Amino acid sequence: LYTAFLRPESQKKRSKSNKNTPSQPIVDPPKARIGLQGLIGNTPMVLVPSLSHATGCKIYAKVEACNPGGSAKDRVALGIIQAAEKSGAIAPHEGHVIYEGTSGSTGISLAMLSKAMGYNSHICLPDDTSSEKVDLLTNLGAVVDKVRPAGIVDKNHYVNSARDKAVECETGAVFSDQFENDANWRIHYNTTGPEIFIQTDGEVDLFVTGSGTGGTISGVAKYLKEKLDDVRVVLADCQGSGLYRKIKYGVMYDSVEKEGTRRRHQVDTLVEGIGINRITHNLSQGLEFIDDAIRVTDEEAVKMAKYLVDNDGMFVGSSTAVNMVAAYKCAKSLGPNHTIVTLWCDGGHRHLSKFWKQARELGEIKLEDF
Ligand code: PMP
After folding, report:
1. What pTM was estimated for this model as a whole?
2. Interface predicted TM-score (ipTM) of this complex, two decimals
3. Which of 10, 33, 40, 93 has the CB geometry, 3.0–4.6 Å to 74, for a possible disulfide?
């Protein structure tokens, strides 16, 4: 593969001092970026060889794990801070604080970018969050508040706690509110969507990804549907999440899953970052552009993660494994010669103790298993 990047013999420039200097690979490194913000977005896209070969399709993963904070949430954190600055709610180096209630990647991105952009960050988490995550946030300079786990309707839920603390903060603050904040889907509409369009030369037959806040699928779906007449958008839903049923049948609960019950808000899955039992504001912005949904079990996700590391050396996180199962199934149902795009949301490193603990135990996985 590497020889494909070597210049043909006729074009080689010979070194004057030493005619035997070996030819150098042509490299095209990006220009230096300015500051941490400059490293966000413009992520690479990679063809997944094993799945593409098996289906006769081009299955591409856009590698959001290459953002400096390790996930697409860097884009969202940047979008949210910039929108808050534009509205006049916060200004750099004034001691203003950015609050969020999250145990996921958004906290890491917000903590990191707050430092880069002249803010303080304050992250509220359930007190059973893993110590690695708490340590990471603290090392990034965030104030971390551990609160007792509670239902989303409870005032002590970590999201509600972050919102309340932002209101009470006397030095000036903003509640980032990733689930409801329009800056979330907009940054994907303005950056992730156009990047996918350019990287595929506008040839995307199908885009498939999971939904947590819904910002990614809404922003990308809206952009691609505006640019392409025939593109299909499919939501990949993990087990325990209500979105599959909502997209397929228009309802989220059956008669035994009454609103207000514990079941309503819990998503019982090993997968982190996606799966939800309500339509967030961000998801509502793209719902009309989602054509179909596909359900992926934890068992399938764990097997796919193992399959990808064994066959392609790709070490993915749990939501990416869900995306890859869904992309593979979509490719099989479309048939050969189609282009499918999904997202490599984050790497396996953040999932070692839970998801990968199961994946690493598995033996050889075959594609017939899906
Ligand atoms: N994967 C991971 C690892 C995530 O952290 C998230 C965000 N919660 C998603 C996927 C889903 O993205 P979105 O919130 O835009 O739906």
Report:
1. 0.90
2. 0.96
3. 40
